[in-house]
């Protein structure tokens, strides 16, 4: 290979892939050749990356010839099939799907938290976490290191772009249908009537509503999204016995996942100390001046890299517990950015080794 | 007094007052004369109650002459001044503000839970709870009676009508300003720019956003709304040592407060047993078939009386904990309906006594 490693971006035309191309154009350039790859129906399109117009290549085995790092943002079943093919062709795969996250031989990496895990990849695959987990984990990890995390109770406020471009289109279409009718939302069913059956990827209308469901049904009433948050948080923090209850809820926000966190620690916490920990935590910005209207919100956090943390309070009835609110851009840190950061760790390793 | 007691509705022209007039027209009629009362600026208007057109009376001491029950839905400071005046004039006051809720000599009544408290009113005043507390409490109380409640962690998804008509107008105006622009919500600050400075009663835009703030700042970073939920829940359930952490968040929904609840009990819970408890609980409707898209949502619960409960799961890591999602109409059970129910208990008492 040349001085700088070759990168393939698989799923480059999707909602996350689009942000990935922007990040590759704006972050420090560590890549040699970049190839953008998508399904057959996107072939013929071009994408701008680092100021150059790149043709979209069709996903096929030989697209990985000479590739050092392949980033995947595609559905689980596509990753399950194609990440191993990329590895067979000599690439290291960084996968943003759920296909490999809980595989014991695949590390689940958040560069601010467990960067050393990136080298522990017997299958040649490194996994990126779920967007809801990533929205909160960079704020939780430094508090865990300070106080020893025992339990998490979280409730999410997840944006529609977590369900891709189809999710964004569904919400924006619905908003156009309800805007201007000042009776909607004040009588049972009238929002459903106005919106009709075209719900996009969601089980219910999102405009003027919140939908306590994300993902698919798993055992005992839990959603797949809620189990991901539990299992991935445990794996990233290296806490296999951490108690976690999550309720995942979709809200009418375009981009930016918010999470209300109740974190119980092994020792008493001091709120001002905790603020100091967060002020110095990588990937975190503390926004906590409620008296002047400053708290983390999706309309501010969207398009930015860090986790925005605020509303920090020590629980009144438990001196070992902290309550706070955290917002992260689900397309950036929640997926494309964390994937890019992992890939950059691999690039640094390959460049050093070369 | 005649056969049926005389009722005054103070604050009859507001968002809650409007629902109150609807309820008085649709519920079993237990009232003799009804007077609708508001501030001076509403005098000259008329309101329809029980099919009759009633002139709005100006709030003044003599408006309470001959009144048996006076329901107040006005700001705290107006209630603080005027509820005692109504009592001096011989009325029993049922107050929906925060002015008296934590007064030891004022019962805080939810008729499904503690109806006997309605007679324990040394000041002649009975308080109605906060809308967020009321959204969840009728679901929590029967589970407490079955399993013994020890701790609550809750996160709310509160609608804009909790801030009155001004809140509803603000959201609907904002939606008209953002609808049709498909770039909004995808870049930091562009929703703020589109909406401008006219935020209504909120500290930030609500369209395409969630705002982790309701009420005013209290000690140690807690909002008044979060403290109300804690203190009122303890008082209604008669559990002065109950551990509660609440995070209150405003969402772009017109009417219907949702709450994600994590409830820890003294004994192990069985999810199917808990469902059975909720099926038989007064004021509760169980909506818990996620496989067919049935879970509680504001667009369905709005305009209805019960608390809609669903997404019931036993915590994976704590057999004594239940997670669930509950939605109630904040203008009905959350304020006007519960006030009407309390007033009806008083009416029954007066009618029996007469």
UniProtKB/TrEMBL annotation, chains A, B:
GO terms (BP aspect): 'de novo' L-methionine biosynthetic process; diaminopimelate biosynthetic process; isoleucine biosynthetic process; lysine biosynthetic process via diaminopimelate; threonine biosynthetic process
Reaction equations catalysed: L-aspartate 4-semialdehyde + phosphate + NADP(+) = 4-phospho-L-aspartate + NADPH + H(+)
Domain Semialdehyde dehydrogenase NAD-binding span(s) in chain numbering: 6-121
Keyword Amino-acid biosynthesis (UniProt): yes
UniProt-annotated binding residues for NADP(+): 13-16, 41-42, 161-162, 330
Keyword terms of this UniProt record: Amino-acid biosynthesis, Diaminopimelate biosynthesis, Lysine biosynthesis, Methionine biosynthesis, NADP, Oxidoreductase, Threonine biosynthesis
EC number: 1.2.1.11
Pfam families referenced in this protein's UniProt entry, alphabetically: Semialdhyde_dh (PF01118), Semialdhyde_dhC (PF02774)
Active site: 131 (acyl-thioester intermediate), 257 (proton acceptor)
Binding-site residues, substrate: 158, 250
Residues binding phosphate: 101
Stretch forming the signal peptide: none
GO MF: aspartate-semialdehyde dehydrogenase activity; NAD binding; NADP binding; protein dimerization activity
Coiled coil: none
Superkingdom: Bacteria
Keyword set includes Oxidoreductase: yes
Broad enzyme group: oxidoreductase
Recorded metabolic or biological pathway in which this protein acts: Amino-acid biosynthesis; L-threonine biosynthesis; L-threonine from L-aspartate: step 2/5; Amino-acid biosynthesis; L-lysine biosynthesis via DAP pathway; (S)-tetrahydrodipicolinate from L-aspartate: step 2/4; Amino-acid biosynthesis; L-methionine biosynthesis via de novo pathway; L-homoserine from L-aspartate: step 2/3
PROSITE patterns per UniProt: ASD (PS01103)
CDD domains associated with the record: ASADH_C_bac_euk_like (cd18131), VcASADH2_like_N (cd02316)
Family: Belongs to the aspartate-semialdehyde dehydrogenase family.
PANTHER family: ASPARTATE-SEMIALDEHYDE DEHYDROGENASE, DEHYDROGENASE, PUTATIVE-RELATED
Role, per record: Catalyzes the NADPH-dependent formation of L-aspartate-semialdehyde (L-ASA) by the reductive dephosphorylation of L-aspartyl-4-phosphate.
Assembly information from the UniProt record: Homodimer.
Protein name: Aspartate-semialdehyde dehydrogenase
Species the sequence originates in: Virgisporangium aliadipatigenens
Gene for this chain: asd_2
């Amino acid at each position: 290979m040349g001085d700088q490693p070759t990168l393939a971006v698989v799923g480059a035309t999707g909602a996350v892939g689009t942000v990935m191309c922007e990040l590759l154009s704006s972050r420090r350039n560590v890549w040699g050749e970049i190839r953008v790859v998508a399904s057959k129906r996107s072939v013929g399109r071009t994408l701008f990356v680092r100021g150059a117009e790149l043709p979209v290549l069709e996903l096929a085995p030989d697209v990985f010839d000479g590739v050092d790092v392949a980033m995947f943002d595609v559905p689980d079943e596509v990753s399950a099939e194609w990440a191993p093919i990329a590895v067979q062709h000599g690439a290291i795969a960084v996968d943003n799907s759920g296909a490999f996250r809980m595989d014991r031989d695949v590390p689940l990496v958040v560069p601010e938290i467990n960067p050393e895990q990136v080298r522990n990849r017997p299958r040649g695959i490194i996994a990126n976490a779920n967007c809801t987990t990533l929205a909160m984990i960079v704020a939780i990890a430094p508090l865990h290191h300070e106080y020893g995390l025992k339990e998490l109770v979280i409730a999410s406020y997840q944006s529609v772009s977590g369900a891709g471009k189809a999710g964004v289109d569904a919400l924006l279409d619905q908003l156009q249908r309800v805007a201007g009718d000042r009776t909607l939302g004040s009588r049972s069913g009238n929002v459903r009537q106005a919106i009709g059956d075209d719900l996009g990827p969601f089980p219910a209308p999102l405009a003027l509503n919140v939908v306590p469901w994300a993902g698919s049904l798993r055992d005992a009433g839990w959603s797949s999204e809620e189990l991901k948050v539990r299992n991935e948080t445990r794996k990233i923090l290296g806490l296999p016995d951490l108690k976690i209850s999550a309720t995942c809820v979709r809200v009418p926000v375009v981009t930016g996942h918010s999470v209300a966190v109740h974190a119980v620690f092994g020792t008493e916490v001091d709120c001002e100390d905790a603020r100091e920990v967060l002020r110095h935590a990588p990937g975190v910005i503390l926004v906590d001046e409620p008296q002047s209207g400053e708290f983390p919100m999706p309309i501010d956090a969207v398009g930015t890299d860090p986790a925005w943390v605020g509303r920090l309070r020590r629980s009144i009835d438990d001196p070992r517990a902290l309550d706070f609110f955290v917002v992260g851009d689900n397309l950036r840190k929640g997926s494309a950015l964390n994937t890019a950061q992992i890939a950059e760790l691999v690039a640094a390793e390959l460049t050093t080794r070369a």
